[in-house]
Structures are given as C-alpha cells and as structure tokens.
Design goal:
Structural class: mainly beta
CATH architecture: 6 Propeller
Number of helices: 1
Order of helices and strands: EEEEEEEEEEEHEEEEEEEEEEEEEEEEE
Shape: globular
CATH superfamily: TolB, C-terminal domain
Number of domains: 1
Radius of gyration: 19 Å
Strand content: over 45%
CATH topology: Neuraminidase
Number of strands: 28
C-alpha cells in the first residue's frame, strides 16, 4: 500500500476537496456548530452557528479563505453538517451547504444562522457574502423526488430532510447529490433545478437482537454521497447506504441524463467519495467494515474498467470523507467527522502519490 503525508491538520470536520489552478487544494470544513438554535438529534444536543469555512492549502501554507458558513454539530463539535463541497473558479467560490431541513412549505427550520443551509451559494474570499444560486432544501420540500419523508415524519414533524452533499461542474451548471433526498439534481446555467436520477432502496436484514430473534427486513435508502464525471461524459454516483450500513451493500451508479440509471459496480461498503484517475475510478469507503463498527478503518480502492479492484490505502484512514485527484497526488480528507481541536483525532488533509 502507498504511504501518505499530512498536508494540513486541525481542520473542523473536513469534507470534499477541490484541486484548483496551479495545484492549490481547497477543502470544505463543516465547522463546529454554534449557539444560535439548539435541538435534540437522536437524543444528543445539536446546535447551529457560523463556524463553517473553506481552507486553501498551497505552497506549504494553509489559510481559511472563506469564513462564517452555517454549521450544525453536537456540543463537542463532532458529526457536523455544513459546508460540504467547494468548486473554485477565479476569485469566485461555489459552496454547497448541507443540512437543508425545511418545513412543508419550503421554509428553513434552522434559525437565523441557518438561513442559507441547504443552498448552493457563490461568494468571494473573506467572510461569506452569499449569493444563493439554488435553494435545494426548498426544491426537496416542493417536489420530494424519492417520495420519502424526513426522520421526524413518524412523530408528526412537518420538516423534510435534505442534505446536499457533493457536486461537480456539469454541462455549464452543477450536478448535485442530495444524500437525504436520495437523488441527483442538475442546476442549469440559467438557474433551473431538475432531477437527473432517483436512487432506489434496498432490502436488508436488521442486526440480530438476540439468540432466536427473527431479523426484521428493512428498507434501506441509497444515501448518495459522491458524484464525478467519467471519461465517457456520464455521471457516476457513489452511495453510503442507510442503517444498518451493511457491508458490501453500497453501489456505484452510472447516470446518463435522459436514461435510466444503471449500476456500474456493487459490493462496496459505505462510500464517502469517488474520483476518476484516468479511466480508473477511485472509491473511498468511510468504514470498510461498516459504520456500526466504531473501530473500522476506511479504505481507498482503485476500480479498473475491467472490474479489478485494488486496495491502495487503508491503514491510517479514520472516517475519511473527501477525495480528489491532482496531477501528481491523490488528496483525502481524513478524520472527517471530528473538530480540529480537543482530545482524540483531528481533521486533516493527507496526500499520496497518484
């Protein structure tokens, strides 16, 4: 396996990576939450604030070049949602913001600091000055392409769950996956949103709850977390899958607009990102033994066009969340669900030879 080096550490929940002109590396930091509005999420206190950012790594230095982005996180700063992906063009930053929970009428549910959560924005360096290009949470509320419901539906909560999580430049606009919406969207150059694909559920058996207990059949959502343009011009989408986060259950879809999505490859586990390296597809697993195993390492796998697979890195990968390929190196966001300070792992960007 290849060795890696740490390019930057103490990042706050680092997510997707973009390699810009001249080899500069940009990483979206989901932040550490805040104190504007708090609520209970699966029994844990979660709060929102403006701690998200974009960091630039170049010439051996790093700097937060965009700050003040919305961020939700637990009170210890872990498991944040916020800035999920970034694309840089000149002095303009296109930033995809996750956690777009909205009411049934498309209005935000996250308070003042969460006003642009769930949006695709453009901004310039410095404290964020957002121009909203697309309100993806509102689109999910109006159209609900997968005909699903937010996690609070069973309790009568009218909020819908939307979590835009990855994007790529495509046909003059942006192709965007909504991890909670289970769909692939396209934002046209004119600003119109359309649905390119909706990804189907799978049936899995629930984890055993004891000897002799019947394992319940569960309908498991796709949870797409990554999108890339292939050498053939088609879009490729990797999925995390939902609970129980089964081993070898994640698929990679090939999407050609106007055609039914096709499974390009299967048998992966909890995919967090994908990127092409020539004709080979690199696949990043956040937990190669499944997310229910807290000790599971991540894995970076090279998938050849003939289907051959090679694990090129696993040791040292701890919940990796982002992947990008440059001219001479592969970049990974590591320790991607942790804040950059405190005890335990720290968010970092690592590189290894391409």
């Amino acid at each position: 396996m290849l060795a890696f080096r740490v390019m930057a550490s103490n990042l706050n929940n680092p997510r997707k990576i973009f390699v810009g002109t001249g080899g500069a590396v940009y990483v979206a930091e989901a932040g550490t939450g805040g104190r504007d509005k708090c609520w209970l999420d699966a029994g844990a206190k979660t709060c929102i604030g403006l701690t998200g950012s974009i960091t630039k790594i170049a010439d051996g230095t790093r700097a937060r070049v965009v700050t003040g982005l919305p961020s939700t996180a637990s009170t210890d700063g872990r498991d944040a949602e916020g800035a999920a992906a970034v694309i840089v063009h000149g002095d303009r930053y296109f930033v995809l913001l996750g956690d777009g929970r909205v009411g049934a009428r498309g209005t935000g549910q996250l308070g003042v600091d969460g006003a642009i959560a769930g949006d695709l924005i453009s901004t310039v360096p410095g404290k964020v000055r957002a121009r909203v290009l697309a309100n993806l949470g509102a689109f999910e509320a109006r159209h609900d392409p997968d005909r699903g419901a937010g996690p609070g539906a069973a309790a009568g909560d009218p909020a819908l769950d939307s979590n835009p999580y990855a994007m790529v430049a495509f046909r003059g606009g942006f192709a965007i996956v909504d991890a909670a919406g289970n769909d692939l969207l396209w934002l046209s150059p004119e600003g119109a949103i359309s649905v390119l694909a909706v990804f189907p559920t799978q049936i899995e058996r629930a984890p055993s709850s004891g000897v002799g207990k019947k394992r319940e059949a569960l309908e498991v959502q796709s949870v797409p977390t990554s999108v890339a343009v292939g050498p053939d011009g088609a879009l490729y989408v990797g999925e995390l899958t939902g609970f129980p986060f089964g081993v070898d259950k994640a698929r990679i879809w090939r999407v050609e607009p106007g055609h039914t999505p096709q499974v390009y490859a299967s048998g992966f586990t909890n995919i967090s990102d994908i990127a092409f390296e020539g004709r080979n597809l690199l696949v990043l697993e956040i937990a190669s033994d499944g997310l229910r195993d807290p000790q599971s390492p991540g894995a970076l796998i090279r998938l050849a066009p003939d289907g051959a697979r090679t694990v090129i890195l696993s040791r040292g990968l701890v919940f990796p969340t982002g992947l990008a390929v440059g001219k001479r190196a592969i970049y990974i966001s590591n320790d991607g669900i942790y804040p950059g300070s405190g005890r335990g792992p720290h968010g970092e960007v690592i590189s290894l030879p391409a």
